[in-house]
């Protein structure tokens, strides 16, 4: 059976509603997953707003990756300076998941889930060796 974003999205909504997240937080997670996925593809391919060597770029003070200067914007949670859309999206995740018992982990590789939710009590070791169960947040391909 072919991949269906809509089926995965619906399953994610049901699973996370049962886990206690409210629908607005779930919708925000789905939007952020799509943003993070789009930016991971742009970084991989060198597409706008990421650096492909054909335009002037500026380093994000948070992640130090190079982006088109017009894509960098201020974000109060990240401190002084202008930050990339990727860092701004990631800064929203802990706020969305505060008090839910879940922790968000992002991955830069656009193959697979770029946003995964783990139980807050999972350890970095368990996450890195693959023994911690997670819920992948589906991202809509554009």
Short recap of the structure:
The protein is α+β, with helices and mostly antiparallel strands. 39% of the residues lie in helices and 18% in strands.
Give an account of the 3D structure.
- The structure is a single chain.
- This protein has helices at residues 5-18, 23-45, 85-97, 124-129, and strands at residues 58-59, 66-67, 73-75, 79-83, 102-106, 115-119, 134-136.
- The chain has 142 residues and is an alpha+beta fold.
- It has one domain.
- The protein has a three-stranded antiparallel sheet.
- The longest helix is centred in the first third of the chain and has 23 residues, at 23-45.
- The two termini are 20 Å apart.
Helix content estimate: 25-40%
| Uncertain residue ranges | none
Instruction: Summarize the biggest pleated sheet.
Output: 3 strands, antiparallel
| Rg on CA atoms, Å | 16 Å
- On the 0 to 100 scale, the average pLDDT is 91
The SSE string, one letter per element, is HHEEEEHEEHE
Give the spatial strand order of the biggest sheet. 5-6-7
Helix and strand topology:
Layout: H1 5-18, H2 23-45, E1 58-59, E2 66-67, E3 73-75, E4 79-83, H3 85-97, E5 102-106, E6 115-119, H4 124-129, E7 134-136
